[in-house]
Amino acid sequence: MLGSTHGTFTNDLRARVVACGEPPLTAVHGTITAPGDRDVSGRPLHAPVPDLDRFFRPRSVAVVGASDAEGRPGTGITRQLIAWAERVGARVHPVHPTRTTVFGLGCSPSVGALAATLAEPVDLAVLLVADPLPVVEELAETKVRFAVAFASGFAETGQDGAEAQERLAAAVRRSGIRLLGPNTNLNAFERFREDLDGPAIALITQSGHQGRPVHTLQELGVRLSHWAPTGNEADLETADFLSYFSQLPEVGAIACYVEGLKDGRAFLLAADRAARRGVPVVAVKVGRTETGARTAASHTGKLTGADQVVDAAMRQFGVIRVDGLDELQDTATLLARARKPVADGVVVYSISGGTGAHFADLATAAGLTLPTLSEGKQAELHQWIPPYLHVANPVDNGGHPVGDRRGRKIIDAILADSSVGVLICPITGPFPPMSDRLAQDLVDAAEATDKLVCVVWGSPVGTEAAYRETLLGSSRVATFRTFSNCIGAVKAYLDHHRFTTAYRSPFDEAPRTPSPSFRKARALMRPGRQLSEHAAKQLLRAYGIRVPREQLVTSAAAAVRAAGLVGYPVVMKASGTRLAHKSELGLVKIGLTSASQVRDAYRELTDIARYEGVDLDGVLVCQMVGRGVEMVVGVTRDPLFGPTVTVGLGGVLVEVLNDTAVRVPPFGEPQARDMLGELRGRALLDGVRGAPPADVDALVEVVLRVQRMALELDGDLAELDINPLMVLPRGQGAVALDALAVCR
């Protein structure tokens, strides 16, 4: 496993952000908060940080419903809480209406009676009762700061349970207490080893059993500092613990198992705080499939959210999403304990050409950079490796030297190369004494370098001394059991440091006040209605998004006059508030070049509309725009994150290929360009089959203007769809040929 100081994770933000600094933090009602800065839609721009010190390290604990009667459900929990309190130096006060003592400790009949007799406030109340609501209401009269409710039967059970949970949450809000649960467990009160050093992993889970594999990393020498089992999150939620853990100097990484998010915005603000500080966040987020989403809802009563949006939002704020608990273990461990990379290059060092080639294929496919070592470096390596073996990268040693120092010299020479930041050695199985010597040489070399050394120990046994003692006994070598987990963790490690080095919080640039466009646009909104194409284009024009020259007409004669003003050739389209797919109804005519064609088109469009029962507000006579790349840019509302912005291939391709990328506002120009990079059809914008490159800068500008619209009209705009947005050749701009807008 790896060791370093937490200081290696300091965030090298751009000078502008460093100069601004983070907002100062102040303690208010048990919560560390930032100044009340809000964006144009009134949402906060900084994450509140709950002051949870007394939750994890209380001085005084009340156990409500404590028991020492054998066979009772609360007895084992009471016993565990007493042992935990002794470890953290807390005093335990049992509370039970019919007992005078519990495990030899004096017992109070109620929380109120306990509070009246104590000279000190109770920091934490643990509720071992079936219905925590009456106890929470009683706690409101005391100075208890935190409570934990283990009881189930709330939002995870359906509508009745959800209503019961809301009553509990309302009582908590009135009381001023911070509550963990309900439907949580004892994981916060586990035993954490105190003989381990180095940066620690802090763990957040909505399911206790799903955090168990990370907790057992302590048996491999990995330090764990905290475990927050959030349960149904009636009050305290994942975002609260994420914000709190990211402030702790001992935390090197935060590992999360998330079934659903209570508040998407709060989660992103917390992730932003972690990103500002350079603290890695690694998360398993269930709900990639419909089955997983349904199961998660029944377990914790949370919204899982549209997975594409969740995935994009996490990536946008640097949260590293993994799928398996084994990946969560390995990736969080590496990110918590590895030093900052000095180079992105990865070298594969193996004792078998086949192993090296296989690993190199997988690593390259995953996006790792395997630089070809220079001819001089290869010549140096061939001093100790036979000349017929490949050493350009991967480096095949043909069998690590055992009887002398050549093996260590090979490793040191590779690590001395300036293009190399990571050395990975896959050992597919034990082959003593060679594998023993190889493991020791790798450990010794890792101690002498500031570069990352990784080993994949492929033996299925895992009892070998080279693995259990040499590799796991090292604080500097990252040891894995599978190729895929090693590659994924190294990719996350390099990506994380690139991300945090360039990170520029989008919340720092979020608009605080409405633009002049806002007043013009809002006057066009019609609550609860869909705008006509003409009105939707006026909305775009208000935000500086280019639309074709066009006129709305209500007669054939007016259509001819409009065509003359717009300029032939023209496009004619029916316009109405309930028209979404005009082409399918034959309500679009293109390439009209004469007055007679315009008259005929007007009559045909109005006849079709009457036949189809479509109410028109007129017919649009539009400029015909030249050829370009058809894109779609839109706004939708996600139940977790609010307004989201989507960009993708447009026209008919939007439904055929579904090639889109999404972001949650606010975001800046780099993220807008990243969205385009995620599209499978990105090459179309660069020009294919002789087509000129498209005006990508103009497309990015439209995306950013649409984002501004989404933020400013958050309370008014339910949906916006610009399709197609014709992106013309470079330097010629982009034109919204059609638009649909739905008001809230």
TrEMBL record:
InterPro entries: ATP-grasp (IPR011761), ATP_grasp_subdomain_1 (IPR013815), CoA-bd (IPR003781), NAD(P)-bd_dom_sf (IPR036291), Succ_CoA_lig_flav_dom (IPR032875), Succinyl-CoA_synth-like (IPR016102). The keyword Nucleotide-binding applies. Residues 537-575 form the ATP-grasp domain. Gene3D superfamilies: ATP-grasp fold, A domain (3.30.1490.20), ATP-grasp fold, B domain (3.30.470.20), NAD(P)-binding Rossmann-like Domain (3.40.50.720), Succinyl-CoA synthetase domains (3.40.50.261). It comes from the Bacteria. One of its GO terms (molecular function) is ligase activity. Keywords: ATP-binding, Ligase, Nucleotide-binding. The keyword Cytoplasm does not apply. Coiled coil: none annotated. This is Acetate--CoA ligase family protein.
